[in-house]
Amino acid sequence: MGAPLSPSAVRDAIDSSDPVAILDVRQSLDYVNGNVMESTWVPRGDLERRLPALVPNRSTPIVLCDERGERAALDARWIESLGYDRVDYLDGGIAAWRDAGLDLVEAVDGVHATAFGYESKEFGERVEVSRDLPKMDPNEVAERRAAVTVVDVRNPPEYDRYGTIPGSINVEGVDLALYADELRDDEPLVVHCAGRTRSIIGAATLQALGIEDVYELENGTMGWELAGRELEAGPGRPDSVDVDADRYRRLRSSVEELLQGSNASYLSPTELAASRAEADDGRTTYLFDVRTEPEFETGHVPGARSVAGGQLIQTAGQHIAVRDAAVVLVSETHVRSSITAYWLAEMGYPNVHVLRGGTSAWEDAGSGLVEGPETTEPIGSDRVAAAVTTVSPDDLADLLDADRATVLDVDARDSFTDGHVPGAAWAPRSEIESAIAAEQEDGGTLADGGTLVLACESGEVSALAAAQLEHCRDSIERRGDEARQGVSSVSADVTVLVLEGGVAAWRDSGRDVETGDGRAVIEPREAVRKPYAQGTRAMKRYLEWEENLVE
Predict the structure, then answer these.
(1) What angle in degrees, to the nearest 10, is found between the helix axes of 335-347 and 175-184?
(2) Rhodanese domain spans which residues (predicted)?
(3) Which of 16, 89, 288, 456 is placed for a possible disulfide with 411 were both Cys, Cβ 3.0 to 4.6 Å?
């Protein structure tokens, strides 16, 4: 059974060589107001969905963190009931960690983005300082625009949504090494992202591979805007770029030489298959395919997760929750995977490997590839059918017309504002018990029992939430009040139902949804993850903060 761990015990677990995953399950604004650097942020509503990927070996110890330790205790017991061997929690939560005087990563001057991805950003600044990368400022790029090739290395959704430097083409992350020479036609190449880190890594990669006349755009699209210039929709990613065969062979030789100088190593297809077949208790292996998502879907090694190389470097801590784990990287041969492995090893990840020959070698060895998108079944899905009672959109409409039900939407806040059942209230999954208690106290349909209907966009999060509520009620019946852990439970006279198929099914039944903020039972505490979404002052302060990470 999960146990409360003191802040010093959690600190010791992090500092030891034993495997452990530290997961912070709070709302994002709580997270940016103070988090343990080595923790991985997993909003409570995503926990069951993300756990199989974050902690694939169920014998790996997990420590859950919340604000004060109360809710995390319930979640620890629930996750253990779903098959994990040991799930503990930070006693007293982050509040106790702070009181113990231990270090926290906190947003600087209210700029929320400074509290996300600290380690990757600090690493990027160290790379820039140590490698003396050439730069161009926005004004110089604007003046020379017709004579330089500008490449945006952000992921396609960011590139499409937020705008880019006029004419900047999109080549994501480590893909740039493949196509740099073909794209620029002997012109200087200027690399950028929204700020600094990804452009630093992009330019440093090309420099390390001997590709010359490469510059990083100082401070990216934010620097461009702060210089008084406008962003615009870009031309996108080139449809097809043919890489000269001789150039590709030279590039592959260069990345192999680069990797030889690091702590990363190659695995053959046979070695990878053998390592995955071994039942090594306590050992976690992550398998990442670092190509683009469309390439991944054309065929990937079974069990691989799709995370483009540049994004993996930028957000490593959000994908690698067990720090001593083996990390195996795959691409079509091993060019992009070797580049990604090199940077992860430079960041300090101790067990990084590359599938030599990539998916091509895997197939040549007689092993099959899997087509289609990544699919991961949330833990607990098998419990839902037995524990949860659903209600159809038609029957829910009848209940609402008769004023006989309360609908509580437990999806992410932006999903709720995009569309919810008319009259539904919102509460975060992390505080669902408190929200239900508040609804009962307000004297509505739940005042004397009644029917509670949980909803979300797909029906998945709400079904898992209902299953956990029933698990908690069963625990209290068996063990009494000590099972509550200080958190209100749902009284036995409240009937808990789940909207079958979620808000999507409600919409598909021809019914209208409400949009906008609606009614929140629990105050939303959502961080603004992009500094440019917080305005000019935040952009300036964010860039200053990044530059000062390395003195």
Answers:
(1) 120
(2) 16-106, 144-233, 281-371, 401-515
(3) 456
Q: The pTM is what?
A: 0.94
Contact 450, 404 (CB under 8 A): yes
Tokens of 539: 């952009």
Distance of CA 53 to the CA centre of its chain: 11
- Alpha-carbon distance of 300 to 548, in angstroms, equals 40
Closest among 436, 483, 428, 486 to 26, alpha carbons compared: 428
What is the enclosing helix (H) or strand (E) of 497?
strand 495-499
| Distance separating alpha carbons of residues 252 and 269, to the nearest angstrom | 18
Q: What are phi and psi of 214, to 5 degrees?
A: -120, 135
Task: For 201-244, give the DSSP string.
Answer: HHHHHHHHTT--SEEEETTHHHHHHHTT---B----S-S--PPP
Q: At which residue do the structure tokens 């976690």 appear?
A: 284
* Digit-coded pLDDT (tens) for 462-503: 999 999 999 988 876 666 555 455 555 677 778 999 999 999
Q: For the stretch 381-406, what's the b/e string if a residue is b when 16 or more beta carbons lie within 10 angstroms of its beta carbon?
A: eebbeebbebbebeebbebbeeeebb
β-sheet bridge partners, residue 149? 189
The C-alpha atoms of residue 215 and residue 203 are separated, in whole angstroms, by 6
Beta strand residue intervals within 358-477, DSSP E: 389-391, 406-409, 425-426, 451-455
Condensed to tens digits (0 to 9), the pLDDT of residues 109-137 reads: 999 999 999 999 999 999 999 999 999 99
Give CA torsion, residues 7, 11, 17, 21, to 10 deg.
70
Query: How big is the chain, counted in residues?
Result: 551
Relative to beta strand 4-5, strand 21-24 is: unpaired
**DSSP conformation class of 95:** H
